[in-house]
Design brief:
The protein contains 18 helices and no strands. It is mainly α and about 350 residues long. The protein is elongated and about 145 Å long.
Amino acid sequence: MDALKAEIALKRKSAETVVSSRPSKYMRRGDIERIKQEEEQKAKQERARVVQDEAQNKAEVVTTEQGKSDANKSPRSTSLAPFVEPRDSSLPIPESSFNISNEETIHRLRAKGQPIRLFAESDRDRRLRLRALELIEEKGNDSQSGQNDFKKALEDVENVERELRNKSKGKKKGDAEEPSTGVLDLELIKTDPERLYPLIYYALKRTLKEWEEAMDERPEHVKQTTQGKLAAATQVQSAEYLKPLFKTLRSRSLPSDMLARIAEIVHYMQKRQYQKANDAYLRLSIGNAPWPIGVTMVGIHERSAREKISTDQVAHVLNDEVSRKYIQSLKRLLTFSQTKYPPEDVSQLMG
């Protein structure tokens, strides 16, 4: 009976092995996960075995090189030879020549307007970048690309004041050569427009020079304040913006409508009628052309309102950036003239 049971169990076991070894069309999820885990474990073991073999090979190579160096060199020279010499030739040279703390590096980079750290940049790379920037500045090749005109004038205001002071001292005799004209005559706009160019040129030059002298005559404690530096920077910026207008006046190529408006500004400024001068400035800058709102073309024919738009009514401040700058500087000259030469009639003051 026992023999029969043993034979039945053996047959059953062989049948199960045959079924399990037979390829099945469907597999359970648990079996799939188990197979994946086994494969991953085998791959990890294989990688660990490869890494261990490489480490053993490197260790053998190092030991053989050390044995050869011990046979050829003295013990003192071989203790640091395999590892320190390549590092001494590449890394410590720039670090030793420019070795500063991270806080000092950040402070210097912020003072130069540079980012304190670039993407994936180490502390050593950041110090090297700072050193490169300082070397470029020492050679005078700094482009200063992130500064606008007003900031540049504000930074250079002390040097500009010193240069203007030297010019005022060295050109006192040359100032007397400028023609001392009286009040500009507005009849020249119709009779002889060519005579207006030198009259406007010297009148604006004289006012600009008076503004420069007023900036130089201020006390030293006023110049050092924030408002004093801003005023000096505004004057320097206005002088720079007026250069294209002076160039156009010298070449006598200013448009007739702009020439008439600027002549009116100079005329009323000399007569200290600043309210009328401001009106002429507004006609020059924004014009008095009609700005229609809503539907203006309801038919195929033009309306009579469109015929009123002429060349002397356009807004010249919208032409280009150069015109906008020197027209704005004309208003600054007008404001300075009102401050230095106030009118007798209070109603002539600008708003």
